Amino acid sequence: MGERKHSVLIGSFVVGSLLIVLAGAVVIGSTGFGGQRERVVMVFEGSVKGLTVGAPVALRGVEIGQVTDIQLLLSTDKADIIMQVEAELSERNVLLVGEGMDASSLIPYLIDNGLRAQLNMQSVLTGLLYVQMDFHPDTVVSLPDVTSPHTQVPTIPTELELLRRTLQSIDYARIAQDIGDIAGSLNTLTATEEFQALPGDLQQTLASLAQAGDGLTDAMVALRPEVTTVLAEARGVLQQVNADLPGLASSAGSGLKRLDSALLATEQAMRSIGDQVDPGSPTLYQLNATLKELADASRALQSLARLLEEHPDALLRGRRSNDQ
């Protein structure tokens, strides 16, 4: 009986172990770790404090793998230290669309299209880091020479790393020296007699300006009645001229018409006299010249009369360029 019970216990233990192994295989297969995997290596120049083995690797926020190894590489040639991080990528959250592409050729294809790795913070409270992958096709590809059989994914510095580099590149000693020089120059300037006398000179200038302003105000107040009187008289003269202008223009037009009629009668009389004079005599020549001048004068008077009829203000403003 004792041997039979012992055999049953051994059999139960073996069956339980097999069940545990099968359950583990099912769990691993359901989480995707049993799928096809691809190992990659990444090199970071800055500190990787906060990055641990098992940290997630994400592509645009979707977890596609985890960190498997972190090594510090010290170069004896140029005394440089780089951080080599290995990661294992899984297909569990990656669905390939299209044909002719497998996992082995997928990573190089993504790198050619701008895939870059960058360290980001998982939590501000814990300070833990993870590897964030995304596409940055405009960045320069820099692949340090490392000994690894895996595909190397290019890396780019984080925003904090860029800020740290910028702060390190600032020459604080030079800035402090410049500030000291400026402070010394200001002290020298303020210690001069001219600068010490500047407030008093400025106060005198302001007082002079105030006096000048008061004098100008008094002068304007004194001249205001005279200016008002002159403007009122000028306004009255202009109103009188505007009132008399139509009648003046009409009178001038009537006078010009009568003068034109007189010139016409004179011209006719001169022509009658010319008919009775010898054609070859000097008198006829003088009469013809006089008749021509009378005709020109008549035309000028007619033009002036038309101008006054159309523009009575021409007597004051003169003839404009478009009054032809």
Automatic annotation (TrEMBL):
Protein name in the entry: Paraquat-inducible protein B
UniProtKB keywords: Membrane, Transmembrane, Transmembrane helix
Ranges of residues in domain Mce/MlaD: 46-134
Source organism of this protein record: Chromatocurvus halotolerans
Record flagged with keyword Transmembrane helix: yes
Membrane-traversing stretches: 7-29
